[in-house]
Amino acid sequence: MKKIFYLGIIGLISISLTACSGKSIATVNDVDITKEQYKKTTTILSVTNDYLNGKTFDDMNKSLDKKGKKDLENMLLSFMIDNELLYQKAKDKGFSPSEAEINSKYEELSEEITSNPSYKKELDKAGVDKDYLLKEISRDLTIEKYRKDFVDKLNISEQEIQDYYKNNKNEFSIPEVDASHILISTLDKEKKPVNDAENKTLKEKADKVFTELENGADFEELAKRYSDDKATGKNGGGLGYFTKDSKNAEFTKHVFNLEKGKTSNVFETSYGYHIVRVNDKKNKQLSFEDSRSMIRNKIIDEKFLIHLNSLEKNADIKK
After folding, report:
1. Are 303 and 154 spatial neighbours (Cβ–Cβ below 8 Å)?
2. pLDDT at 15 over 60
């Protein structure tokens, strides 16, 4: 099924594409989608993909043949067209956000980006400054208001929800891992990043711990001795079972790529340097009650997609 997402910075998902040629690559009701907009979007999506999933733009492109690259290119262009079409419709209906709403969302997003220095650095290089964020936040909130109005008018029955679960049980089987970790923190007592010199020393400490592991030292004993996550360290670093969405994306992108029984190399997040061992992997089947909210959202997405398709039929779209 075609995915719906908003291409402002709030709604970025992982996908990377090749660039198009020409100043204007599409028009939506006489509004241009330019090559410059397209290239900036691909750059930001690539950076975000690297942050969330550990796959860079080049990694993804290398794994695709010519047809795959073209398909992805067309998919992104289609998403950008949908985004522009929804924005136009939402604006026409008077769903523009207030300045206070825009500023509030900016503060929230800015804090989140600033808390991840490496991610912020890459976004800065991509030209994601305050003006860009404010503009994209305004667009996103405009579309969100339009979509909320659409959702508020929907009537989704209990039978619809039950039928969806019965017919799509495989969608509610969620991967989990049981992992242990050793953390060498790079935050000071005020939870702020240490300076570069201290960071280098802490990296050397993490590398030393990893060398001990390679030489046969016991993971649990090293966690008890070295880990700065005291809550888990005293128990050998055990984190128990968790899903990909239940912990920091910088962390889980590494953990969920590991095979059962494997130990990671040293990797860095905004919390510090980690070494992780995956003890077990399994899929957890969610019950109907645990899936209810998720099912409702999936049904909403399907109905909104039908609505979006009807908008496209009545729009003047050229590409």
Report:
1. yes
2. no
